[in-house]
Amino acid sequence: MRRCRSHAPRLTQPRPESRVGPPDTGLPTQGFRLNTGQPTPTAPLQDATGRTGDSTFSRAVDSPLVRGGLAISAGLITGNLIGFFRVALTAYLLGTHSAADALAVAVGPIDTLNSVLINTMIFAFVPMLTERDGAARAALFRKLNRVFVRVFLLLAVAMMLFAPWLIRLLAPGLDANYVGTAVTILRIASLSSLAAGTAALHAAFLFTHRRFAPTAFHQASLNVFTIVAALSLWRVIGVFGFAIGYTVGAWVQLGIVYFAARASLRLETAPEPEVHWRDLLTKPGSFLLYAVLLALNVIVTRAYATHAGPGMAAALDYSMRCLNVPLAYLVNPVSNSLLPEIARLRSRFQLRRAFRLIDKTIALVALTAVASCAVGIALREPVIRLMFERGSFTAQSTHLVSAVFLGFAPSLIGWSLLELTSRALFALDRPWLPLRAVAIPVIFNLAFVLLVRKPEPQWIGVGASLGFLIAFLLLFTLMRVTRRRWLEQPERDSRPALKTT
Length: 501
Prior knowledge:
This protein is an all-alpha fold. The chain has one domain (66-482). It has 20 helices and no strands. It is globular. The two termini are 37 Å apart. Residues 1-46 and 493-501 have low confidence and may be disordered.
């Protein structure tokens, strides 16, 4: 043993003057460098760099986060590109007249409700489905589908029955001659909520299999069929064609995700999951409350706009359509692909990695949101004129929409950051922080509405913008303060197991 130790340095430390071969290139080598009298072949630096780049690219392509983000981004690009033509067609046919107000106050809340259903189903049940594999996951999905399809059906029927009272609540300042039009549009569009909620359950199931492409084109489906129906039915039924096309698009999207999920459901039968249907209904309670409070901020702003005069609700709707494009890019691709990863890190007690991932994402989204808001405000009037000013959309409409956009555009910053941080905390099973913070925007907005009774166009969205920003700052501060306690909790939970071992 002593001889081996005494001779070991002679093999591992050859003399520099006896080394034969090309000079050191700085590339790492493995094993021992032996003096054999022959030059040692070395890879060229460019080839090594190329291989490193190829391996980095391969890892990026194989990453589920990257693939999910690319799929959702492709769907968003397609949906927003088609959505531009949808908004341009609405502006051309309706402008900022009272008919446009009726369409905005009826379809707008339905669109918000569908977004609430989609986000609630995804955030409530993606972690729950991720915890199961194979047939057990499929069995739980089937039970979820049976329970919530009945809920969505009752919701759609209730909206159709109570449509007149809902319009009075959602648009108290709407022109009386167009209240009946808004009621009919609301009844037609309410059928889309049944399809949107059911499609959201299928989307949650597909997300657990990291299949993002079938769900990414939801907005594109809505926009395509809205355009087709509006153009083909305009001379026959007028503004009602928009509502019919919107509803048909929602049902087409349900068909897409239904057939996409069938392949993963063809598994061996599993026993019925031991989860009572009452527990399934209460599971999305916190998520639903969060989404409803978040949506109320926009609903209050839209109702506030109807008191400012004819065409103001339509101007706000055009502004929101312009703002939804960067908002969708800032929130949906990141959060939808990030949610399963954070849930997996939490299940493995890797909270430090989860928080590092959240911090980097928030920083990137914050920089992008501020830059997008600044560019949008600076170029709002020429861009709106270029996109919409034709047909029924006059120069006065351009001025009106530009003024409303000025006050509502800053909501992009607080809205996107609040959404992203809240979704990450829901994935970490920390729902009480988002639930406390999300009530701030609507409370602040209501206070602003009561203080400013006769608003100018540029003041309509100020309450919503400030409310979103204040809520995010509070939520981010609370998350940073309580982070250390969250990180120490898994360590305390693991100590009894270590002692037992």
